[in-house]
Amino acid sequence: MTENVSSSISSVQPRPIAAAARGRWLRRLMLAVIFLSGLMAGVGVTLLAVRQGVLYGIHHPEEMPERVAARLRRPLNLSDQQADRVEAIIQQRQTHLQEIRRRFQPEVEAELEQVYAEIRELLDDQQRERWEQIYTHLRQTWIPLLPKPAELPGRSD
Fold first, then answer.
1. Taking the alpha carbons of 25, 26, 27, 30 in that order, is the dihedral positive or negative?
2. Residue 6's pLDDT is what?
3. pTM of the full structure
4. How far apart are CA 50 and CA 120, in angstroms?
5. What is the DSSP string of 72-118?
6. Residue 151: which H helix or E strand, with range?
7. How far from 64 is each of 35, 107, 152, CA to CA, in Å?
8. Which stretches of the chain drop beneath a pLDDT of 50?
9. How many other CB atoms sit within 10 Å of the CB of residue 112?
10. Integer distance in angstroms from the first to the last C-alpha of the chain?
11. Residue 155 contacts by C-beta under 8 Å, 6 or more apart in sequence?
12. Helix (H, G, I), strand (E, B) or coil at 14
């Protein structure tokens, strides 16, 4: 009888240890899931914020010199005079960059129209309608029209 008792005791002892080990692994797994969920949420919010900042800069080029100068002020420890000069330099160079873009814009537009037309030809009527919506949205979002030369910052024509 003592053999039966001792054998049943020895078979019972590993169970609490196994349950405790399972509990630790479950806690670790849950912590990892929570951590990874938070990480993914943070990455997602960061990407959305960066995208919005880029789009804002694309659609409001007139504000970029001031925003860039403000962003450089602290890390470079710029004085007010230096910050004003940095803003003026960026404004002048931005005007030149837009003039370069304006010269090449017809080529870019022609290529984009070719892409639009070639894809449009492959589609049925329903797909074609949806493609036109998608294409229009992408163009308005990522490649807005350039401001007219008189609208460029720092320009006095």
1. positive
2. 53
3. 0.52
4. 32
5. HHHHHT--HHHHHHHHHHHHHHHHHHHHHHHHHHHHHHHHHHHHHHH
6. none
7. 37, 26, 12
8. 12, 152, 155-157
9. 14
10. 109
11. 95, 149
12. helix
Distance CA 109, CA 115 (A): 10
DSSP string, 2-70: HHHHHHHHHHHTHHHHHHHHHHHHHHHHHHHHHHHHHHHHHHHHHHHHHHHHHHHHHH-GGGHHHHHHH
Structure confidence at residue 59 (pLDDT): 80
Distance from C-alpha of 59 to C-alpha of 47, rounded to nearest angstrom: 18
Name which of 102, 112, 111 is nearest 140 in CA terms.
112
User: In the prediction, which pLDDT does 43 show?
Assistant: 94
The per-residue pLDDT for 156 is: 47
Residue type, 95: T
Lookup: tokens for 58: 């694309």
Residue 155, both tokens: 């320009």
Contact 103, 152 (CB under 8 A): no
Q: CA dihedral in degrees (119, 123, 129, 130; nearest 10)?
A: -70
Exposed, middle or buried, 69 (CB in 10 Å: 0-12/13-18/19+)?
buried
